[in-house]
Amino acid sequence: MEDKQYLKRINIVLVDTQDGANIGSVCRAMKTMGLTDLTLVTERSYDENRVHMLALHAFDLYENARRVRTLEEALRDSVFTVAATRRRGRLRKMSAYSPEQLACHISTIPEGRVSIVFGRESDGLRDDEVMLCSSVVTIPTSDAFPSLNLAQSVQIIAYVLFNQAQVYPTGMTAVSHERIASAVVQASGHLDAIGYYKWDEERKWTESFLRDTLERAGLSESEMQRFDKLFAKIEKIKIYKDMKDE
Length: 246
What we know:
Layout: H1 4-8, E1 10-15, H2 20-32, E2 37-41, H3 48-55, H4 59-63, E3 66-68, H5 71-75, E4 78-84, H6 99-106, E5 113-118, H7 127-131, E6 135-137, H8 150-164, H9 177-193, H10 200-217, H11 221-245
Parallel strand pairs: 1-2, 1-5, 2-3, 4-5, 4-6
C-alpha cells in the first residue's frame, strides 16, 4: 500500500523529447510506480501510434499530459523543482541529490507540486534549463558507460519515489511488557513443576533470560499463545510419563 498523496504531487516534466516512443516508455515507467502527472515542454507534434506502442495501458498519461511551450511555464506552480542531470558546472549547481536523498527530502516539503525535469535524449538539459530549477538529482552510474536513456532515468527515480511512499504494514502487533512478564511467570511455574530448577538463583536467571529474549523477539499475541502452550504441554508430558513409570 502506498501513500497516494505523496505520489500525486510528483510532476514529471519532459523537455523537448525527440521521439514519441520515448514518451510512451516514460508513461509506462511512471504508471507502474503510481505517478500520473506528466508535463510536456515542446512545440513538436508526435506520432501517437509510436507513443501508444510503448505506453500500452499507460497511454492515458500522454492523453492527459499538460503541454506547454516553455520550461518556465511548466514550473510556474511548483513548490520544488529538480533537474535530472549527471553533468556538473558553475551554471549547473555544485551539488546534487541522489534519488534516495531526493525522495526523503520531498517527504519534508510542505504540500504542493514537485517537478522533476528530464532533458532531451541526445544531450539532456541545457545550462539555462538546469538554472531554472532549484536543485539537481543525479543517478549514480558506472564510469565505464555513465549514460542512461530517458525512460531508464525516469524509471529509476520513479521507483525510488514509489518506494519512499510505501506504508509497510508490520503484519502484527507485538505484545506488551506486561503480557510477556505474565507468560514468563506461567512458563516458570511449569518448569518448576517438572523439577527443572536445582537451586534458588536458577529460577531468577531463567525468568530474566526468558523475559529479555521474548521482548527482543517482538512476538505477536498468537505467537505468545503458542509459547504458553509449549510449556504447559511439557508439564503434562512429564506428569504422564511419571504416571506410566509408577
